[in-house]
Each structure stands twice: as structure tokens, then as C-alpha cells.
Design goal:
alpha+beta; Yope Regulator, Chain: A; 4 helices
């Protein structure tokens, strides 16, 4: 469930642009072991049950190791990923437009993110309860 704003109301999320959804699907298809899923209605990719990356509105977020995140955040336009102001997701960065416009550069960073995600302990799949 999405976090509520200070006013107590659920924020309104806008759909991801079709071009970004298409790009995401294309680059994720080349990531070994990536499992596509949706989170809050947006495409995401998981590895061993751990989230690797995903879309949120018109942004792509990527999980990176501490060292890679420090390097990434020095790139122009790169910043920590925050779905809402003041709600930074600790290991995630927002991919800037320059990298989104370069499939080769995006794949390079996805490969680094994948290497990190593969070091994390696998998460067991949740069993859906029958109601």
C-alpha cells in the first residue's frame, strides 16, 4: 500500500510514459534472471525476489551498491530516488535523462545493479492466502 501524504490522502500517481515502459521492457529482457512484476501498477524487475529496478511515474529507479551509488550520484542529473518528497529509498537512484537516452549506458548501470542484487539474500515468494 502506498504511503499517505501529510494530509492523510493517498497521492495521485500518473502512468509511466509509453516510451519509458517500452525502453524498460527492452533493457530488462537482456538482464539474466530478471523477473518482471508490477508494483503500484508500474513495471519493475526482481532478481531472487529482490527488487533491482522499476518505473515510477516518469522516472526509472535502480538499486545499486554503496560504492556504485556514490559513483552514480556524481553524474549530471543523478539523484537518490524518492517517490515522494522526504521519502528517499535508501539503496535506489533515479536514472537521469542522459542515461535513459543511451541504451548502452543504461545497460552498463543495470549490469552493476544486477551484480549487487545477486549478492543480496533471496527473498521467499509470498504465498497468497485463500479467502
Amino acid at each position: 500500500m502506498a504511503a499517505k501524504t501529510k494530509s492523510g490522502k493517498m497521492p495521485k500517481f500518473t502512468p509511466a510514459p509509453e516510451a519509458l515502459v517500452t525502453l524498460f521492457g527492452k533493457v530488462i529482457a537482456d538482464v539474466p534472471g530478471a523477473e518482471p512484476r508490477k508494483m503500484f501498477g508500474y513495471p519493475c524487475a526482481f532478481v531472487n525476489g529482490q527488487m533491482l529496478c522499476g518505473l515510477f511515474q516518469d522516472r526509472l529507479m535502480l538499486r545499486l551498491s554503496d560504492a556504485d551509488r556514490a559513483k552514480f550520484l556524481k553524474l549530471p542529473g543523478a539523484k537518490p530516488f524518492a517517490p515522494m518528497p522526504g521519502r528517499v529509498m535508501r539503496e535506489y537512484v533515479e536514472v537521469p535523462p542522459d542515461i535513459l537516452n543511451s541504451e548502452a549506458e543504461l545497460k552498463k548501470w543495470l549490469k552493476r545493479g544486477l551484480a549487487y542484487a545477486q549478492t543480496l539474500p533471496p527473498k521467499a515468494k509470498k504465498v497468497k492466502s485463500k479467502k
